Amino acid sequence: MGSKLSITLLALAALTTAAQAQDKSDIIARGEYLARAGDCTACHTAPEGRLFAGGRAMPTPFGTLYTSNITPDPDTGIGKWSADDFYKTMHSGRFPDGGLIYPAMPFASYTKVTRADTDAIFAYLRSIAPVNQKNKPHELRFPYDNRQLILGWRTLYFREGEFKPDPGKSAEWNRGAYLVEGLGHCSMCHSPINALGGTSQSDAFKGGLIPMQNWYAPSLTSNREAGLGDWSIKDITDLLQTGVSMRGVVYGPMAEVVHNSLQYLNDEDTRAMAVYLKGIAEPSPSPPPSSALPTTESSLLISLGKTVYDKNCASCHGLQGEGKPPHWPPLANNQSIEMQSAVNPIRMVLNGGYPPGTKGNPMPYGMPPFAGLLSDNEVAAVVSYIRTAWGNRGTPVSAREANELRSAPLN
Fold it and tell me: What is the largest CA-CA distance in the chain?
């Protein structure tokens, strides 16, 4: 009797241990998925560096910040942190000792992440290989090297608190809102940033120039920019998951987001994001075209632009800008071409680029750079042409604008 009971107890203990191990494995896998959704590797892994060992330079208008080591190394990483410490950092934007974190870390978005999801991310980070690599001191100009100034920034721009579902919306819409507003921290790029490095709540998702990178992150609310109100859910999910769709292609910083993060989301979460993004788009009438350039100059530019376009662009994008989607996007009736800011189309002509290589599009078609082939006048001309031809309602650009972007950083 006693022997059978002992065997039974041992079997129960073994089953309990196996179940606990499976639970831990499931939590770690979920944490890895959530860390992908938050694109943690984009900042905390330096080029050619070890995973999450930090040291990536983050140029800002205030100086250069260097990202921190978040591997479980006990001396230089977060190996001595508790789950409470990690949640406090994510939720309140403070280190475990209470120190203030510079808002280059998107804690204004991460504060919305639930405790359960934060704990899962922490469990995943605890499971990766520790890397002994000291954090590099920031190189900020005076007075921005005084962390106490962050208190003023927080008063103006930080509202602590987990995401609260909108009871008037569907579960799918709320899941999309949680991912876009929280872990995805999409507002970090797709909102205008003022001289203090902050964004008011009323301007969230209204688009803006990304500081130091010279790319324009379009408005997610205006259908004249990246607002997706008139896109199908499939076109939106295709763009998020693969980087290409029948309506457009991602380049620049957004290509990195798709490559590092969005392509790994499951179909349900991708669709939820699409539903939310489509829902926040606000229809806006197209204003009549106007130009800051003299009429004669505009006419000459557009005439030259057609010549440049027919010679260099039409073979892929079509004589009428119809494109060959999804690999060669249409330029006619293309929101990214017509936006108020012409930074992105100028940069694409100058620097070319590739959509991200993703599991849904492993061999992307790219666009060659024309910076070495076209003069500033020719770049301005062809961009002016595609922004005003085929019914597009953009405005012409000047050779000066093209010249200024020749020196823009490529990374």
Answer: 103
